[in-house]
Design goal:
heterodimer; A: about 500 residues; B: about 325 residues; 13 helices; 2 strands
């Protein structure tokens, strides 16, 4: 395994050098950085030209320029040395611009990646298990549709209909009867498709889900939940217990009482712990991502202990299940805090909660939760735009691989041995279906970056994509190369991670 | 005993007419079909692919005949270049609702898609954009397919150093995000559509190269290759006349999917400003020019986008139908 990693590292390094040189040559050939100065009519024109030639090293040949630039990049990695990624046409240091822009783009791409994989794979697998049903046809057609949509068109459409529409609605949140009925029916149909079963069961599930959704919508409106949202301690406990049951169903099956009891105990402890934790979370000096991470670690440790003690014969599964339950409970507690910040945030931004420009509200001063909410609402639309297309790719692909896996001989053997469907799918087919997805993830990462470039331009984020587009339009080589080195390194790292997880998931690969 | 229920063979003769379980005389004729005929039959039975094909041909015919091409006049009276006065705020004169549903009856009017800021007819502009976008997409598809096939064939057949070099190049091109490479190359090429088509073809070939190489790796071990070599066939003949026809299925499917990817790529490039530039127009450029007008004149934004989606979606469906037609074993696990 070690040799594998070292070999991949060496190859990746060579690829990095080759691709950065290729890009540098192409960018240098794509335009003249002195173009605007040639048309300049001021008296010190020659001085300005000379200054720019000196800053951008335009007097040297392209390979020499590349070596100077590469030297500056290498200095980034050597500790104690300053990073020197060149200067823009206007004389700004690329390093400063890049350091501000990286965080912005990183948030966007990570959110889109994680959500696309989680949602896409889940939907693809559920769709493959319900092959040729209405749900399957709907998902397949939607995947085709999303795959053919241009990102920029979708982004502008979302900006108009989702953002401005939601903002206008939020000014006076009233759920019309028509919307309530349509939403309830759709929700009923979705639950019926997910839970499946024979005709009678499906219709019962659909009916119950529709009625419950309808009742819930109007109850929420009656208690004015949309202007003052919160989860409340009771609801958090209920959700935690529900997630305990759901996790047990997925991981071990409800018959495994050990696992179920362990998860229920974890959820109960989480439900009680929230009374302890909430005052800490609301204390402005204490609330920060490091502390929340600390809480998460403590929760995982407690969950592992509970799983270990109560697991009995199913100890590994119990530990997995309790950890997932603890994380889910933590998620609901955090969500509650975030929701409680909505009224004050809405007042601060004048009632327009879904923003369309920028990655955060400028000069925003608020509590930790309000700031997080601000980040989140700005992140929502761009992530959704990129997500749609990645989601389509993942769901189609995972559906295909899952179908292939389910038709294999070993799955038929497992069924013939009398294992429950849940065991067959989750323990045997699922892991093997994931293996080809790692290669897809490596490809899709490049597509996510391309999508991020477009969405940042449309939503006015000051991220790396904008750096790239503006730099290329103005024939400014160094910001473009700054963008490219960060992108290339992340693509290479991601490819390596994908290869290593491929080796982890498929033991046959480890031996080569 | 052939399965007479299969769609690929039809049974005629005494057995078929006599019904099941009879027949001592086993005289029947099976109408065998060549592989090409079977593929074509399966393709034409695929409803999604047929719908896609019809829509795509309709859009093509509409775009190329309405305003004419290369000096040949079209049937649409307006031109996409003549400016004029903006009537009625550039509103659409297309009316589809019948009178009893609050419309004025079916009418096309002078400017069915409205007018742009300087009074040009938007329908003609959209058609011109479609012409250019489709032209670029198809050219890119052809060029990248040829490049990908050549690279894949040579690296798969010759192995050794050739394969290493070509595959490293392919991997290199695959690590660069598509839009980044295409934008830089588009910027180098200026804005003319034909040159853009040529250079974008240099961006989309790596995927096909890998697939073709995979096919060649497995096919070069087959006996017919050994036989051809024993008979003294030169390498080029073996590649192009023996192995390549067997990979045609994969190539055609991927060429179609490349065309669909190319149209999305070209419109995205034109949207960002690195693709087709003034005075030519493209669907992406139209959307980019009028995205600010979305609040007041949304039709300026909707129509080019709908055309992009229609073209991409129909080509995707055709590609899917071709994939199912070439590999019938896939119909059970239709991806």
């Amino acid at each position: 395994m070690g040799v594998f990693v070292v070999r991949r590292l060496a190859v990746s390094f060579l690829i990095l050098i080759a691709s950065t040189f290729l890009m540098f040559a192409l960018v240098s050939a794509s335009g003249d950085p002195l173009a605007d100065l040639r048309l300049d009519t001021s008296p010190n024109k020659q001085q300005k030209i000379d200054q720019r030639i000196e800053q951008l090293h335009l007097d040297k040949s392209v390979p020499a320029r590349y070596l100077i630039w590469a030297g500056g990049v290498v200095k980034c990695v050597i500790p104690g040395q300053e990073c020197d990624l060149g200067t823009t046409i206007r004389g700004q240091e690329v390093t400063t611009l890049l350091s501000q822009a990286i965080g912005v783009t990183f948030r966007l791409v990570t959110a889109a990646l994680v959500l696309a994989i989680l949602l896409g794979v889940t939907v693809g697998i559920v769709s493959s298990l319900r092959q040729y049903s209405g749900f399957d046809y709907t998902i397949t057609f939607s995947a085709f549709l999303f795959f053919s949509l241009p990102v920029f068109w979708v982004a502008v459409l979302l900006k108009q209909y989702l953002a401005i529409g939601v903002n206008n609605w939020y000014a006076d949140p009233v759920i019309t009867l028509g919307f309530g009925v349509v939403f309830a029916v759709l929700s009923g149909v979705t639950w019926g498709a997910i839970i499946g079963g024979d005709r009678r069961r499906k219709w019962i599930v659909r009916g119950v889900a529709a009625v419950l959704t309808f009742a819930m919508l109007f109850y929420l409106q009656a208690v004015d939940w949309f202007t003052h949202p919160a989860l409340g301690p009771g609801l958090i406990l209920v959700l935690a217990l529900g997630s305990a049951v759901a996790v047990t169903t997925l991981v071990a099956g409800l018959q495994r009482r050990n696992v179920l009891n362990a998860c229920l105990v974890t959820a109960a402890i989480g439900g009680v712990a929230q009374f302890l934790v909430t005052p800490w979370l609301q204390d402005p000096k204490w609330a920060s991502w490091t502390n929340i991470l600390l809480l998460a670690v403590i929760a995982v440790v407690v969950a592992v202990i509970i799983g270990y003690v109560m697991g009995g014969l199913d100890r590994p599964q119990a530990i997995r299940a309790t950890v997932l339950t603890a994380l889910a409970t933590g998620f609901f507690i955090t969500l509650d805090q975030l929701l409680r910040a909505v009224p004050s945030y809405s007042d601060a931004v004048g009632g327009r909660i879904l923003a369309t420009i920028g990655s955060s509200t400028p000069n925003f001063e608020g509590t930790f939760w309000e700031t997080q909410l601000d980040t989140f609402t700005h992140l929502l639309l761009p992530t959704l735009s990129i997500l749609l297309i990645s989601f389509a790719t993942y769901s189609r692909y995972s559906r295909g691989t899952m179908l292939e896996t389910m038709h294999q001989d070993y799955v038929r053997t497992a069924r013939a041995k009398g294992l429950t469907e849940r065991t067959v799918v989750m323990r045997h087919a699922f892991r093997n279906a994931l293996i080809p997805l790692t290669t897809l993830a490596a490809f899709d990462f490049g597509a996510l970056i391309s999508g991020a470039i477009i969405t940042e331009t449309i939503f006015g984020w000051r991220g790396m994509g904008v750096l790239f587009v503006n730099g290329l339009a103005q024939s400014d080589p160094y910001p473009v190369m700054g963008f490219y080195i960060v992108t290339a390194v992340s693509v290479v790292v991601f490819n390596m991670l994908a290869d290593m997880s491929y080796a982890y998931l498929d033991p046959r690969i480890r031996l080569t | 005993m052939p399965d007479i229920q299969s769609e690929d063979v039809t049974v005629t003769g005494p057995v078929a007419e006599a019904g099941p379980l009879t027949s001592i005389e086993r005289e029947f004729t099976i109408q065998a079909r060549t592989q090409r005929e079977m593929v074509v039959r399966r393709f034409f039975r695929h409803r999604g692919a047929m719908a896609g094909l019809i829509v795509f041909v309709f859009v093509l015919v509409l775009a190329y005949t309405s305003i004419g091409i290369l000096g040949l006049p079209g049937w649409w009276p307006q031109s996409y270049e003549t400016t004029g006065t903006v009537q009625n705020g550039g509103a659409m004169t297309l009316d589809l609702l019948p009178p009893f549903v609050d419309g004025d009856g079916f009418a096309i009017g002078n400017h069915p898609f409205g007018q742009d800021d300087v009074g040009r007819d938007y329908f003609a502009l959209t058609m011109r954009g479609t012409q250019i976008s489709v032209l670029i997409a198809i050219s890119v598809g052809i060029i990248s397919t040829m490049l990908g096939v050549v690279v894949g064939a040579f690296s798969g057949y010759y192995r050794g150093a050739t394969e290493s070099a070509l595959m490293r190049l392919t991997d290199l091109m695959l690590t660069i995000p598509l839009l980044v490479l295409a934008a830089v190359i588009g910027q180098i090429s200026g804005g003319t559509p034909l040159l853009l088509a040529l250079v974008l073809g240099l961006v989309l070939w790596p995927n096909l190269a890998r697939l073709v190489r995979g096919e060649f790796l497995s096919l070069r071990e087959k006996e017919f290759v050994e036989a051809a070599r024993a008979m003294g066939a030169p390498n080029s003949r073996i590649i192009f006349r023996h192995i390549l026809p067997n990979t045609l299925g994969t190539i055609i499917v991927n060429a179609t999917l490349t065309i669909s990817a190319a149209i999305i790529l070209e419109t995205a490039l034109s949207f960002l400003g690195f693709g087709v530039q003034s005075p030519d127009t493209s669907l992406g450029k139209l959307i980019s020019d009028y995205q600010a007008a979305f609040q007041t004149r949304p039709w300026l934004f909707w129509w080019p986008g709908l055309f992009i989606v229609a073209i991409a979606l129909s080509v995707n469906f055709v590609g899917d139908g071709l994939r199912d037609a070439f590999d019938p074993k896939q119909t059970r696990v239709r991806a």
